[in-house]
Amino acid sequence: MQQAVFGIIGVGGIAQSQHLPNLTRAPHVRLKTVCDLNPERLQRAQAQYQVPEATTDYRALLADAEIQAVVVATREDQQAPLAIAALDAGKHVYVEKPLADTPQQVEQVVAAQRRSGTFAAVGFNRRMAPAYGKARALVDAHGGARNLHYRISDEYWDWGRNLPPRTRVIHEVCHIFDLVRWFTHSDPVSIYCVESRPDDEVFVLAMASGCVASITNSGYVTMDLPKERVEIVSELGAVTVEEFVEVRTYGYADAEPVYRFAGHSHPDRDSTHKYLLAQGGADALHALRRMGWEARERWRQVKDDPTPLDRAELEHFVAHRSPHWNYMVDKGWLHAVDHFAQCVLSGEEPQVAGATDGLWAARMSAAAMESRASGQVVRF
Ligand SMILES: NC(=O)c1ccc[n+]([C@@H]2O[C@H](COP(=O)([O-])OP(=O)(O)OC[C@H]3O[C@@H](n4cnc5c(N)ncnc54)[C@H](O)[C@@H]3O)[C@@H](O)[C@H]2O)c1
């Protein structure tokens, strides 16, 4: 099989959980080079995924004429300049979201992409989640979206504590802004945002298609609550998607009432969740999630003052066996990167989000912040 030659800049959290395993097993990708400023992390990634070359200097990676495409997964302050450097070096680029903190910075990436004529994809991977593809096709076949509600909520108070307050809209809700455009085939006309406390807010969007959308975003829940749910009302009838695994239809005589999507496997995880989903649906996965949360809470309670048995058992459970770590829903990461590689090989325009979609998401985040501050509806 023909394979596009890839390099990756940044082998931190998302690279280790998704990009490295996916670039290694995607059928249309050959991962040639890893790059990171942190030499230990770099060495570990190179050894674990048996990548032929490693460098701490992104310029060396970009100078390699054999490399056709580059994944950029650093941090938002680095992603735009690195994507621009890669585009200017004639590479195709798959850059993590958000492209940058401001629309002005993202505009520079859009300009670089136009200059280079190569592809620039943005890591709005949810577009490629199989459950969302199914939901979108169902809604389209039933008159299109008229009313959409999305909830995204998680333990941002924990994992996002080093990020400035009130910026979850840039880092996390950008995914959902992109999805609302994608589900409705439409751009926003206006946005309104109101918060109850920093990073706990509701957005109301009017779309050019006539659809109205609301997004509930909270960084204050715990992981026993499934992170994401979308409900889409179409011309007649509705579709819901629970945590990427269960699509339910209402009022569609020509569709199944439930479609299930088992998620994907990962080298570090087993596939318990797939069997549970097949047996018990989304409820079984919710129970699994709760067990993972309870185990971790219990570990937090006993970790400083455990009986030796508790400590050993729980550390092992949390590190290796916690069902939560097996709970690997398919948010489209692997499909997105393999599809991108196929487009690199064929020259066909990728169906994943591009730089202009990244710009829309940045504009929507900026407008939402403006609305939040002023209390007024902001028009695009
Ligand atoms: N699409 C998703 O679902 C998803 C999920 C998580 C994170 N992300 C995004 O991915 C990006 C990375 O997040 P993360 O959690 O992996 O960050 P991280 O801090 O864990 O990793 C970033 C890595 O990039 C390296 N780096 C930074 N500047 C560099 C440079 N100039 N050259 C080479 N290496 C450099 C750092 O040393 C670090 O190892 C962020 O934009 C984040 O928002 C996306």
Report what the structure shows.
- The chain is of the alpha/beta class and 380 residues long.
- The protein has 14 helices and 15 strands.
- It has helices at residues 13-25, 39-49, 58-63, 76-88, 103-116, 130-140, 156-159, 168-171, 173-184, 272-302, 308-321, 323-326, 333-346, 355-374; strands at 4-9, 29-35, 53-55, 69-72, 92-95, 120-122, 145-153, 188-197, 200-207, 212-218, 228-234, 238-242, 246-250, 258-260, 378-379.
- The protein has a 9-stranded mixed β-sheet with strand order 14-13-12-11-7-10-9-8-15, with helices on both faces. It has a 6-stranded parallel β-sheet with strand order 3-2-1-4-5-6, sandwiched between helices.
- It folds into 3 domains: 4-125 and 332-355, 3-Layer(aba) Sandwich (Rossmann fold); 127-262 and 363-379, 2-Layer Sandwich (Dihydrodipicolinate Reductase, domain 2), CATH 3.30.360; 272-326, no CATH class.
- It is 45% helix and 22% strand.
- The mean pLDDT is 93.
- 46% of the residues are buried.
- The structure holds nicotinamide-adenine-dinucleotide.
Percent helix:
40-55%
User: Main beta sheet: strand number and arrangement?
Assistant: 9 strands, mixed
- Kindly provide the name of the CATH class of the largest domain: Alpha Beta
The small molecules bound here are: nicotinamide-adenine-dinucleotide
How many extended strands?
Answer: 15
Coarse morphology: globular
Q: How many domain modules?
A: 3
Which CATH architecture of the largest domain? 2-Layer Sandwich
Mean pLDDT: 93
Question: Please, what is the CATH homologous superfamily of the largest domain?
Answer: Dihydrodipicolinate Reductase, domain 2
Which structural class is indicated by helix and strand composition?
alpha/beta
> Element order, helices and strands?
EHEHEHEHEHEHEHHHEEEEEEEHHHHHE
Q: What is the alpha-carbon Rg in Å?
A: 21 Å
**CATH fold description of the largest domain:** Dihydrodipicolinate Reductase, domain 2
Strand order of the largest sheet: 14-13-12-11-7-10-9-8-15
Q: Give the strand content.
A: 15-25%
